[in-house]
Amino acid sequence: MEKTEPTGEELYDLAKRIFPIYRSITGKGVRETLAVLKNVWNGLQIHEIASGEKVFDWTVPMEWDIEEAYIEDENGTKIVDFEENNLHVVGYSEPVDRWVEREELLSYVHTQPDQPDAIPYVTSYYAKRYGFCMTENMKNQLKPGRYHMVIRSRFSKGCMNWGEILIEGDMREEICFSTNICHPGLGNNETSGPVVLIHLAKWISCIRDRRYTYRFLFLPETIGSIAYLSQNLEHMKKHIRAGFVVTCVGDDNHYSYVESRKGDSLSDRVLKHVLKWHCPAFQSYSFLKRGSDERQYCAPGVDLPFCVFCRSKFHEYKEYHTSKDDLNFISADGLKNSLIVLQKTVSVLEKNRKYKTRILCEPQLGRRGLYPTLSQKNTYADAKTIQNFTAYADGCDDLIAVCEKIRQPAVHMLPIVDRLLKEKIIEVAEN
Amino acid sequence: MEKTEPTGEELYDLAKRIFPIYRSITGKGVRETLAVLKNVWNGLQIHEIASGEKVFDWTVPMEWDIEEAYIEDENGTKIVDFEENNLHVVGYSEPVDRWVEREELLSYVHTQPDQPDAIPYVTSYYAKRYGFCMTENMKNQLKPGRYHMVIRSRFSKGCMNWGEILIEGDMREEICFSTNICHPGLGNNETSGPVVLIHLAKWISCIRDRRYTYRFLFLPETIGSIAYLSQNLEHMKKHIRAGFVVTCVGDDNHYSYVESRKGDSLSDRVLKHVLKWHCPAFQSYSFLKRGSDERQYCAPGVDLPFCVFCRSKFHEYKEYHTSKDDLNFISADGLKNSLIVLQKTVSVLEKNRKYKTRILCEPQLGRRGLYPTLSQKNTYADAKTIQNFTAYADGCDDLIAVCEKIRQPAVHMLPIVDRLLKEKIIEVAEN
Amino acid sequence: MEKTEPTGEELYDLAKRIFPIYRSITGKGVRETLAVLKNVWNGLQIHEIASGEKVFDWTVPMEWDIEEAYIEDENGTKIVDFEENNLHVVGYSEPVDRWVEREELLSYVHTQPDQPDAIPYVTSYYAKRYGFCMTENMKNQLKPGRYHMVIRSRFSKGCMNWGEILIEGDMREEICFSTNICHPGLGNNETSGPVVLIHLAKWISCIRDRRYTYRFLFLPETIGSIAYLSQNLEHMKKHIRAGFVVTCVGDDNHYSYVESRKGDSLSDRVLKHVLKWHCPAFQSYSFLKRGSDERQYCAPGVDLPFCVFCRSKFHEYKEYHTSKDDLNFISADGLKNSLIVLQKTVSVLEKNRKYKTRILCEPQLGRRGLYPTLSQKNTYADAKTIQNFTAYADGCDDLIAVCEKIRQPAVHMLPIVDRLLKEKIIEVAEN
Questions:
Q1: Same domain, B177 and B131
Q2: Which residue from C minimizes the CA distance to A392?
Q3: B246 and B332 inside one domain
Q4: Residue A370 confidence class, pLDDT cut points 50, 70, 90
Q5: What does the pLDDT read at residue B369?
Q6: Facing residue for A376 by CB, picked from C110, C225, C230
Q7: pLDDT of res. B133
Q8: Mean pLDDT of chain C
Q9: Residue C404 confidence (pLDDT) above 80
Q10: Could you tell me if the ipTM is greater than 0.85?
Q11: Could you read off the pLDDT of C308-351 as tens digits, one per residue?
Q12: Per-residue model confidence (pLDDT) at position A378
């Protein structure tokens, strides 16, 4: 069996390869990124949908590619250059080649005034315009005079691409993980998601006796998930039991969780349980704080059981959607620990069944070597967890619910459950 | 269309006309009061039930009228006189004309010792007696000697009256408002209720495309609502969807709400929601703190969905049921703001339906001019409310429930709901 | 009718008779104890099950009796002697007669190091061994040299015994009380339980018009309840409506309650309600803190509605399972007040039915002498409880639930309920 546990450094190295590729919701950046991911694990399939196709209330946009973009002054000095930082151009800008006075130039310039040394990340996917982004400091230094705005971009009838991985298990019931591949040079949002998920997929493919089928989606945000849902909604509603939007998982700050619209799905329950024991100080957010593709998965009528897993959550950290969210903002440890949380989540899901104690009254644990034979107060600590599990395993609550009641991490119960099954003290009451 | 928005001063002027009329549960005071109200809005119908009629566990009392009542001393000086303040006589007193020593007189005198300068409001509807009310200070100044107690009252087989307004809407489902017209010279409890409700009725009669039918009741407290229920219970159980006892709504202190017995009816939900956004510091009371006609509407077997709306609640303010609850205790602003709360309540009820987003996945708000076309962080504030509404409008929750979830006042959502209906983004899932 | 209300002193005298009898899970100590209890009330039946019988996952152990047990030094001085304190021998020890060096002796000696002057209570029912218990102080004074370990005990194929009382009522539905008779010289755990329950049984036998049938069990802990359940489970599941494990009820500290596994059974509701009003500071424990026969009664598949009533709860007081839990730890007042709590519990259960107000709208309490006829504010206090009861008695909530809502102790409502039934203001809606 090949090695499936990557080090944090391996994850970070992959992030370094993906980060510089210029991505938008369509175009060659997306394809190049998917090719790098497929290189990590060959199970990735690449799909496309033609520009102009109607997907629910939306239309697949034209393919957009960009060659160069800059502003130069009268001396031919480049003030900002797309080559230097790909955030300098407003995403999906129309082409332009014009000399303008400083005042007019400023009407095309976007900055983040409250973070004067950060370049904001700005896009305009659904209205035709062009524009440039720079730091507030740089803007304030622009002298009067004429400036040359150049954007060599091109719209063409092409397609929109996404990646998909399907790893079959014993059951047709699916667990789904979804992330985005449309953001350009941003580290946490979104180089981290694809990096962590491609390695999670590889790891899952090596689990023996896998019960669930796993589906991974690497999508352009919003339009990508809408397009995917427009083609697969019926299948997803029938088969998906838990889904996770995985985004902003590269930094090493606190963990975050955004609940699904209904808040009580299997995904919510397992992720909250795992996080509570992995790192009790994790941050929990209402669905009112949604912002990524859970907006589509949980929409009325779609109603899929997706919640969101992040470290520093989108919209909640200062560096979000600026040039400060770069490779320094994420870390090897941050990526690795996010992967560990998802591995724990999968491990718990695989054994999350309703167990029932087969024996009426307490089982005699002593003769099975599971209980001390000498009774004196304060000598039971180790056996107590087993007793609690068998006292609450009534075939009505699943593993997660029982663990919540007996205040034990499900991850630690997994070997105990195996032992109790083997001893025929418990049985599976229901899948 | 006639002007339907009265000023606070108009409300207060009406209170000044009603306040001095001497009322009891039966008699000409009730009829005179109803006549004044009918003058404000002609839709008011006046009903009667004969003395001696059995109404559930009770009997309609004799009609009672009073000509004069006073205590005079040996010099012929009137110590207290009903002409001066109609609280000086115990309501529903038998006639009397006796000279007594001070000691005996005192056994017929009621005061409020903890408020020595207030005359208490005292009645004895269900046991025959007579008596006088005065301030504790006045009682303490009574010198030894003989006193003449005179009450010229008369019981007669007549009737008990009440007022009723029915304003029909598109549906037979009803919203009911109920107040009392049996209290004599008391401002908040109860000149304010009839004043606010007659103007609310007038205002509702001018709502276009009214969905609900509205019923207003102006009743003698307790026996009036029992009599009304004994005649109309079946109809009310079938049609009433929400009901409000409106009492003590004239002062300008905090707002109060008393929950229905079950606490979760439509009336509870809408009034709590409206008050929370109108004035978050409103005071909420358990049904254990009931005291007006909700005692009948919510009784076991009656089970109508009534809660109570007040400003300073009965039993909870010092001036309650004393001469201090007079025209100075209430105000133009107090009456007007109470009317506004009830208007908001009606407006929300009219649109409180289950809405469902018609579009799978998020609607493309941008091309409908409902969303900014340029995506940069922190630019979405205005559009967020629309997005939240469409993300939660799943056809299961009604408007109030969705607004609770998205933390928006339903009153502010009303024009947005109209716009979304017009854009065919949402539809009514159910009445 | 014989006197059925024992004084605290009578309860304590019974404890003094039972305390010195040496008990184990089998053997003559159990039979002697049951004989003393039967002497208090003749309704007690004594049952037996043969050694070696399979009961669910367990086997009834051999009968064990002990004649003497001691350690003597080379001078023939007895270091510890079973005659002096029956905790000195490990319960269910094998016989032994050996001279050993001090070092070897220590491997057979158990102490409670954190309580150096207490002898711990130690047993080894399910693994063959022998041993002695002494204080940590005594152990530290043992000089080097040889010691004679003597235990004259005997295992024999005999039986295990328990006591049972059945007091029939009008209904076959049962209330069950269960305690233990297997602990040797310990006061709170467990001389107190049998003392309180035998007197509770005697008191219940004198209740006129008893509705429920009552069952009392005096069992060896764990194996006793398992054996009993293995013979009676079907009957118990069909008939038991509420059950109480009564243990550690002799001291005069706070009251304790351990919830059933599901936490919302009739036993939980009634005991919590009674304790809240009897002594609001009672201590409430989760089922995770279980430890007595509720472990069997609430096991998955057994699912009987048992909670636990204690004073200082097992495992939660320092003296627990040591020689410090003696006759000084319990008191006449402690035993008597525990009995009072259980008597209140029975009284409430007997009248805990769903009542329904027979009259639509409020009943006219005045003409029945239940309400003051003069209405002035603050004069209603006494009548308010009656009004609240009739306002909430809707035939859906039982007495306990109504009392929780109107914030009154059910014990105080019992005579009021009788009066309202007699007046035909309420009726029983359902048993």
A1: no
A2: C300
A3: yes
A4: confident
A5: 81
A6: C110
A7: 97
A8: 94
A9: yes
A10: yes
A11: 999 999 999 999 999 999 999 999 999 999 999 999 999 999 99
A12: 53
The DSSP line for C196-254 is HHHHHHHHHTT-TT--SEEEEEEE-TTHHHHHHHHHHHHHHHHHEEEEEEE-S--SSS-
Q: How many structural domains comprise chain C? A: 3
Same domain, A388 and A329: no
The nearest alpha carbon in chain C to B108 belongs to C374
A residues 373-402 lying closer than 8 A (beta carbon) to C: 373-377, 387-388, 390-395
Residue A341's pLDDT is 98
Task: Please state, in angstroms and rounded to a whole number, the distance separating the CA atoms of residues B31 and B64.
Answer: 13
Supply the CATH number for residue A415's domain: 1.10.10
Give the domain-ending residue among A131, A156, A181.
A156
CA–CA gap between residue A168 and residue A212 (Å, rounded): 7
Give the closest-approach CA distance of A117 to chain B in angstroms.
16
**Closest partner residue to C361 among B124, B290, B302, by Cβ?**
B302
Mean pLDDT across chain A: 94
Q: Which residues have CB under 8 Å from B428's CB, separation 6+? A: B353, B354, B355, B356, B421
A185 pLDDT band, cuts 50/70/90, is confident
Asked if A3 is an interface residue toward chain C (Cβ–Cβ < 8 A), one would say no
Tell me the whole-structure pTM to 2 decimals.
Answer: 0.93
Are B255 and B237 within one domain? yes
Mean pLDDT, range B348-354, rounded to an integer: 98
Contacts of C392 in chain B (CB under 8 A): 261, 300
Inside any domain, residue C70: no
Based on the fold, state whether residues B314 and B373 are members of the same structural domain: no
**Letter for the amino acid at A351?**
K
Phi/psi of residue B414, each to 5°? -55, -50
* Partner-chain contact A360 C129, CB within 8 Å: no
The per-residue pLDDT for range B304-332, each reduced to its tens digit, is: 999 999 999 999 999 999 999 999 999 99
Q: Does A113 touch chain C (CB under 8 A)?
A: no
Query: Amino acid identity of B147?
Result: Y
Which of A173, A150, A166 shows the shortest CA–CA distance to A215?
A: A166
For C300, the closest chain A residue by CA position comes to: A394
Distance CA(B170)–CA(B153), nearest Å, equals 48
Q: In whole angstroms, give the CA distance from residue B184 to residue B91.
A: 9
Say if residue C295 is in the same domain as residue C188. yes
Q: Which domain holds residue C233?
A: 8-61+159-351
* Facing B377 at nearest CB: one of A226, A302, A320: A320
Whether residues C302 and A360 touch (CB distance < 8 A) is answered with: yes
In this complex, the residue of B356, B364, B406 whose CB is nearest that of residue A288 is: B406
Which B positions 299-358 lie with beta carbon below 8 A of chain A?
356-357
Q: Is A288 on the interface with B (CB under 8 A)?
A: yes
| Range name among A375-379, B93-97, B401-405, C153-157 with the lowest pLDDT average | A375-379
Query: What CATH number has the domain bearing residue B200?
Result: 3.40.630.10
- The string over C93-127, giving b where at least 16 C-beta atoms fall within 10 Å of a residue's C-beta and e elsewhere, is beebeeebeeeebeebbbbbeebeebbbbbbbbbe
Q: State whether residue A289 sits within 8 Å of chain B by CB.
A: no
> What pLDDT is attached to residue B2?
52
Would you say residue B144 lies in a domain?
yes
Q: Do B299 and C366 lie within an 8 Å CB cutoff?
A: no
Report, as an integer, the average pLDDT of C365-381.
Answer: 69
CATH number (domain holding residue B91): 3.50.30.90
Q: Do residue A106 and residue A248 come from a single domain?
A: no
Report the gap between the CA of B386 and the closest CA in chain A (Å). Answer: 12
Contact B127 C366 (CB under 8 A): yes
Residues 6+ apart with CB under 8 A from B93: B66, B69, B124, B129, B130, B131, B151, B153
The reported pLDDT for the residue numbered B1 is 42
Question: How many C-beta neighbours within 10 Å does residue C383 have?
Answer: 14
Q: Are residues A308 and A248 in the same domain?
A: yes
- Is B289 an interface residue toward C (CB < 8 Å)? no
Q: Which of C90, C122, C302 sits opposite A361 (nearest CB)?
A: C302
In a domain, B198, yes or no: yes
